[in-house]
Amino acid sequence: MLEIIYQDEFLIAVNKPAGMLVHRSWLDKHETRFVMQTLRDQIGQHVFPLHRLDRPTSGVLVFALSSEVAAQAMPLFVSHQMEKTYHAVVRGWIEEAAVLDYPLVEELDKIADKHAKTDKPAQPAVTAYRPLGKVEVPYSTGRFPTSRFALIEMKPQTGRKHQLRRHMHHLSHPIIGDTTHGDGKQNRLFRTHYDCHRLLLHASCLRFVHPVTGAAVMIRASFDQSWQQLFDQFGWCGLTDQ
């Protein structure tokens, strides 16, 4: 059962689990569980995705309950007329809030995008971020006897593919659990010492103006057990509420 965190007669939102695909994809023919099909079966009606979350990312995921509402709502999501808030755990300590304006070249999939142009210029990509907490743990991943990590909040101003993961990699603060843009030694530390086997990136809040009613909507998604365990161990409980 998916956790439904918002529902009215036009829209429905779930707290997507990490590791679950939004919809069926030929890129992973062996997968049998998808958010879209699971939610359809759970509520007994078709749903229409308005945006996406990467497979390893958890958090707020919104669907329309009809194709008509989807057509009304899609421009909101395409033009980023909403505020998205994410939380992540990254390598190293981040001391100050900042805005990273760093254009990104489009990431192409070897199979799905094999006919796409590869000479496109970098596209604007902007991410605001701020530190919420930090921790130093007694485990080494290199030349130092300890390792440092930070809990951060991020608000993307644009929606490039893997933007948050690539931006944090650019800052040399890769997100823990990122097997593409991250640090294998840090990921192994979290698997070994904290039994954490997921990407520590969570879409925690989404704010927007309802496309039908015009009302202000805020949808929050709670953190799963892996996150809660880290909050307890690192003394980070309550920091994401700031």
From TrEMBL:
GO terms for biological process: enzyme-directed rRNA pseudouridine synthesis; tRNA processing. Responsible for synthesis of pseudouridine from uracil-65 in transfer RNAs. InterPro entries: PsdUridine_synth_cat_dom_sf, PsdUridine_synth_RluA-like_CS, PsdUridine_synth_RsuA/RluA, RluA_PseudoU_synthase. It holds the Pfam family PseudoU_synth_2. NCBIfam families: PRK11112.1. Residues 11-170 form the Pseudouridine synthase RsuA/RluA-like domain. It catalyses: uridine(65) in tRNA = pseudouridine(65) in tRNA. Its EC number is 5.4.99.26. This is tRNA pseudouridine synthase C. GO terms for molecular function: RNA binding; tRNA pseudouridine(65) synthase activity. Keywords: Isomerase, tRNA processing.
